[in-house]
Amino acid sequence: MINSHIRNNIRTLRFHHSEMTQQQLAEKVGVTRQTIIAMEQDKYSPSLELAFRIALVFKVPLEEVFSYQPEEIS
After folding, report:
1. In the prediction, which pLDDT does 12 show?
2. DSSP labels for the chain?
3. Which long-range contacts (CB under 8 A, 24 or more apart) does 43-49 make?
4. What is the mean pLDDT of residues 15-34?
5. First to last CA, the chain
6. Residue 65 to residue 5: CA distance in whole angstroms
7. 60 — phi, psi (to 5°)?
């Protein structure tokens, strides 16, 4: 059985982009600040569309924002 987890670098990217706030990012991608918080805490995996919108805000490839890490469970 595989337990998968999507990790992200949103907090780091925000810091490196003029210390963008969670609210500023939320407004740029059309979600609530709570959604950004949940993603940063790995409690919410975004839709593919939202993931691409976030990558576009930071002007980086999707893989620099999100990574998929499957974990084998015995």
Report:
1. 97
2. -EEEEEEE-HHHHHHHTTT--HHHHHHHHTS-HHHHHHHHTTS-PPPHHHHHHHHHHHTS-HHHHEEEEEEE--
3. 45/6
4. 97
5. 7
6. 14
7. -135, 160
Q: How far is CA 25 from CA 1, 14, 21, 69, in A?
A: 35, 8, 6, 24
- At 43, the amino acid letter reads K
Instruction: Provide the greatest CA pair distance for the chain.
Output: 44
Contact 33, 22 (CB under 8 A): yes
Four-residue CA torsion sign, 62, 68, 25, 32: positive
Q: What is the pLDDT of residue 26?
A: 98
